[in-house]
Amino acid sequence: MTLEGTQLIGRETVLATGEAFHAIDPSTGETLQPAFPTGGQAEVERASELARAAFDSYRETGLEARARFLETIADKIEGIGDELIERAMAESGLPRARLESERGRTCGQLRLFAKVVRDGEWLDVRIDPALPERQPMPRVDLRQRHVALGPVAVFGASNFPLAFSVAGGDTASALAAGCPVVVKGHPAHPGTSELVGRAVQAAVAECQLPEGVFSLLQGAGNEIGQALVTNPSIKAVGFTGSRAGGTALARLAQNRPEPIPVYAEMSSINPVFLLPEALEARGEALAEGFVGSLNMGAGQFCTNPGLMIGIQGEALDAFLATAAKAVEASGTQTMLTPGIRDAYDRGVAALASSDKAREVARGQSSDAPNQCQTGLFVTKAKDFLADETLQAEVFGATSLVVSCADQDEVKRVAEHLEGQLTATLQMDDADVDFARDLLPTLERRAGRVMVNGWPTGVEVCHAMVHGGPYPATSDSRTTSVGSAAIHRFLRPVCYQNLPQALLPEALRDGNPHGVSRLVDGQREH
Amino acid sequence: MTLEGTQLIGRETVLATGEAFHAIDPSTGETLQPAFPTGGQAEVERASELARAAFDSYRETGLEARARFLETIADKIEGIGDELIERAMAESGLPRARLESERGRTCGQLRLFAKVVRDGEWLDVRIDPALPERQPMPRVDLRQRHVALGPVAVFGASNFPLAFSVAGGDTASALAAGCPVVVKGHPAHPGTSELVGRAVQAAVAECQLPEGVFSLLQGAGNEIGQALVTNPSIKAVGFTGSRAGGTALARLAQNRPEPIPVYAEMSSINPVFLLPEALEARGEALAEGFVGSLNMGAGQFCTNPGLMIGIQGEALDAFLATAAKAVEASGTQTMLTPGIRDAYDRGVAALASSDKAREVARGQSSDAPNQCQTGLFVTKAKDFLADETLQAEVFGATSLVVSCADQDEVKRVAEHLEGQLTATLQMDDADVDFARDLLPTLERRAGRVMVNGWPTGVEVCHAMVHGGPYPATSDSRTTSVGSAAIHRFLRPVCYQNLPQALLPEALRDGNPHGVSRLVDGQREH
């Protein structure tokens, strides 16, 4: 397939007229063809209007038809073949194995949402039948289902050019819910975006859906994003990216004449608590596991372990010594973009120049373009508690170890943390009382609490929560990974005394779709 | 019980030092004793801190203990006896039968939430067991439940001094979810609030719960409310009231260092569509039913039918003539407060002075204090479409009839409407095609769609949606009436590889609470 550098608006391909940008191969600094002229207000309006026009029809596609559409997208993405992997490698600097696995995850989650759609639990059907004889007042017939919110704007993320991008989790869950999607592609991987966008476009056509179900807008700068979030046809936003970006979008959405929900997954330093017995018994193994997790994907995961917390003493010193060796042995890795590399260097420099943090070790360096040099710093708990800037996420392979005087100080550090995607306990059996004591705080602070694992690696399944209190996300009531993500794009509607012919099929007598229902408070399957 | 005019902060009663205010009997204008000194920042901080301190303990109360607490509140409210009804009558001008029925509703919904808590579906337990043999990567053990958001600020509403006030739907659903509650009582009924607040306080003590589970703050002015919404211990807000008030609170909450969700139920004119065959066949009965609904509670319901839409012609003229007679025969009724009466008079005056609306009829007038004089106005669809101010809610017994040229214009009016709590179709069998054509628009615009009923009357049950797109509420994804309201105050947490001893009981092997679970995507009961 020849890349054209076009916007995909409904069934059309449109060459925009804004300033052109190019992808850059971060491993070489080389500019990649073709040029992508930036879209603007006109393209946003056209895509949003098509999405609005498609909404009433698309949201009422049957469960089977919608599931087939999601599966067709997955098939079409796989059908692109190696061209997709090669372009994504060139645009992201990520290795082949990682991108092949990410493609599997992307298609797997589209197929998971197909299953979820077919199952129909997401409709949350509730029926309270009429009670005409009830005293003192009869009860009318009341039936509830969930309907799609409306067209959704999805912002592709840089760090997962497939799984959190054009046909990633936000798009999959919004389409599953019955929402048309307008994607703003991430400018770091426009070619990858175009390839995937064409696959979705082809799936829309093959499934004979209204063309406005999907559009892909591309551009450098903020104009497209701002225009999308303020467009009256857009009814919700999915975003994965920086805290500043997500917070700005949330403000913009809240200040619309009709405010809309923004699901922004933003910032997390993913604290890991090294409990005393575990640290004593297996500090070296923990140090090696930690640095392995830290270096994964050049540290460019939302769940990168950016904060380690332990109690000062010989065991923590030994942990630090082993971790320092592992860090020093760490080779450089290519970061996603020059901008991300610059931000990483600034974050590391801020730690290095802080009088409250001390450098423990740096990884190997390299003169190759856009390399991430691993970093490890240490601070005392009293300094960490006194300086909010030490909680700032450094996106990349650098972590800060907080040395606490005692268990009480560990608790104070936990209580002091901002909202997180994850919180981890490294513990042995004898640490269980301490762990139990920390757990309520961690539940309040994080979306996922884990024991004896590392936060990198987010399973796509039913029980996953990839979310958490602000600033981890803008809305802690949900998840952006896993099947529960569909609920972000739904709202309940109640139907009172509608004749059978007017009722949505899922609510009719006899349960024609065979979905789970709550009838008069009793669950029926 | 002697009213003391105190704040109820945890187990204490505190006489505040702010400027005192009194309730007023709106039917006589008489000032009611005692004085209520307004609480301030100190009381907000104390109540919020107690709520924060109570949270970790209260949110982990067992299902049975929490259900019993809700039932105990209901028992204690009933235990107040006639004193509660008499004080509420004096403070609201509402008749005895209405308040007795409202007390029944209030206690009924506390008991409904007790059932919901016991049932445990709200926990949304999901378990994806470990798959150690999976290739290429094993799966870890992942389990999800929902936990309470944190302390909730609830703003009592003026128009339901029991059912949407101190122990109303917001409080009941927040307590059911495991959230401590700090209520800001509505200054129109401080005595009613104190009586109910003491009942809740007694229930907290009897159930041996931490005192911070409930506090009641009272005061005139906005200081308490603003201090509550910006207090860092408060994690969500429930509000029923004006559009200006709800929007201001939502902005305040969004601009906190840690933004929090606001569930504000605000403004709705509840359009009723008079479809041609129904209007032709039974226009007189519709007119009488309409004016009955319009006058209910002096029009002071969120679901008052403020907008009637029909196609011009003889049938609509006949409907208007009958409605005009019914309006003219309507006696006055006492409104809740002098402020609400003044706002009503201003709203009616704006319609009367608009060159786009024409007065059809006014009800009887009276020199008694704070009386609502029923009003009926008519406008042409083209004027309605051109003037946003004609969509402004007039809180009270006044409605606007929109006369449309044809079916297309009815659709344009429907599409032009802001978000609504309800939308109603008055229809006969021969109207079904027209109704089907309107339905997608109404689903997008309203939380509840009904046929051949009137919007006043909101059943407390499982299928109810008392919600809708902005400005009906600040968050269309939920309801403030009915059992689904519990979901507003919950967020998911995922537990990865936790040993059984650390797992919350609801997630342990063997399902000790016997709740519904989604295990590896399969529903188990």
UniProtKB/TrEMBL annotation, chains A, B:
Top enzyme class: oxidoreductase
Domain of life: Bacteria
CDD domains recorded: ALDH_KGSADH
GO molecular function, one term: 2,5-dioxovalerate dehydrogenase (NADP+) activity
Keywords in alphabetical order: Oxidoreductase
EC number: 1.2.1.26
InterPro entries, per database record: Ald_DH/histidinol_DH, Ald_DH_C, Ald_DH_N, Aldehyde_DH_dom, Aldehyde_DH_Superfamily, ALDH_KGSADH
Pfam families, per the entry: Aldedh (PF00171)
Domain Aldehyde dehydrogenase: 18-468
SUPFAM superfamilies xrefs: ALDH-like
Catalytic activity: 2,5-dioxopentanoate + NAD(+) + H2O = 2-oxoglutarate + NADH + 2 H(+); 2,5-dioxopentanoate + NADP(+) + H2O = 2-oxoglutarate + NADPH + 2 H(+)
Family classification: Belongs to the aldehyde dehydrogenase family.
Protein name, as recorded: 2,5-dioxovalerate dehydrogenase
